[in-house]
């Protein structure tokens, strides 16, 4: 179990943080004993269980197109009690809502960027991210936690003799950044997220490369200078997250 200290600063936000500070983050690894790798990431008041399972086969399209290596795919859901008002299950509606579909595709892309899929071999890795409690940043928490669970699963495959070498290329983490009022903020909680004039989600790897940058002006525009400031703030946050992930994995 790894936890970042709660900072005490003179400049405060809705939850007492300075503009450049992350919320406290804690990992509880091996939370799902039947998964190949799992963790509960607690990021402020956002909590997401990330579980990884492995199937010794690949999707049919890979077989039909003779694509070498393996595949990683993700599923994301918010449990009914994760928000203040009950959220209906996708199974009740009969389809996945657009937001969940977008996020699970993002998680899948982020995790595929972390591995050499050819070295993974002909197997499929499923990454399941279930939100227990939502207070902003569920997709960034899911990606950051999913990487930890993924590494644990890869280590187990190596220990079982199913992989001769690690296919991991780079660590992957994600964080939100935005402009609330006139100030650039790192890691938006819910009340900041809904008030943000500009809202971004940043996904990067430990090589300092961008995997995905999702951003928009919410009824506002932003300048190139503001964009550069947001990216600098987000990159600093990613570096902190990578250190927290490394510490969490060192304890498994």
What would you say this structure looks like, in words?
The chain has 252 residues and is an alpha+beta fold. The chain has a domain at 2-170 and 246-250: GHMP Kinase, N-terminal domain (Ribosomal Protein S5, domain 2, 2-Layer Sandwich). 34% of the residues lie in helices and 28% in strands. It contains seven helices and ten strands. It has helices at 60-64, 90-93, 98-114, 117-120, 138-159, 190-195, 224-250, and strands at 2-3, 25-29, 37-43, 46-55, 71-78, 124-133, 172-180, 183-186, 198-205, 210-217. The strands form two sheets. Strands 1-2-3-4-6-5 form a six-stranded mixed β-sheet. It has a four-stranded antiparallel β-sheet with strand order 8-7-9-10, with helices on both faces. Strand 7 and strand 8 form a beta hairpin. Mean pLDDT is 91; it is low at 1-11.
């Amino acid at each position: 179990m790894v936890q970042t200290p709660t900072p005490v600063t003179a400049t405060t936000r809705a939850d007492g943080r300075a503009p450049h500070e992350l919320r406290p983050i804690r990992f509880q690894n091996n939370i799902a004993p039947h998964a190949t790798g799992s963790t509960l990431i607690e990021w402020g008041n956002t909590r997401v269980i990330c579980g990884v399972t492995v199937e010794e086969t690949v999707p049919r399209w890979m077989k039909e197109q003779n694509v070498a290596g393996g595949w990683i795919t993700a599923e994301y859901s918010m449990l009914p009690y994760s928000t203040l008002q009950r959220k209906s299950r996708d199974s009740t509606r009969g389809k996945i809502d657009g937001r969940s579909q977008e996020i699970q595709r993002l998680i899948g892309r982020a995790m595929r960027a972390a591995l050499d899929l050819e070295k993974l071999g002909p197997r499929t890795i499923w990454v399941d991210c279930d939100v227990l409690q939502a207070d902003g940043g569920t997709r960034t928490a899911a990606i950051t936690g999913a990487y930890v669970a993924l590494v644990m699963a890869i280590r187990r495959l190596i220990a079982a003799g199913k992989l001769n070498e690690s296919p991991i290329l780079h660590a992957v983490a994600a964080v939100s950044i935005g402009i609330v009022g006139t100030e650039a903020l790192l890691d938006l909680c819910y009340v900041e997220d809904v008030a943000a004039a500009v809202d971004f989600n940043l996904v990067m790897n430990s090589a300092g490369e961008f995997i995905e940058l999702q951003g928009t002006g919410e009824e506002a525009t932003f300048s190139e200078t503001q964009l550069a400031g947001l990216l600098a703030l987000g990159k600093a946050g990613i570096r902190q997250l990578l250190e927290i992930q490394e510490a969490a994995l060192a304890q498994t």
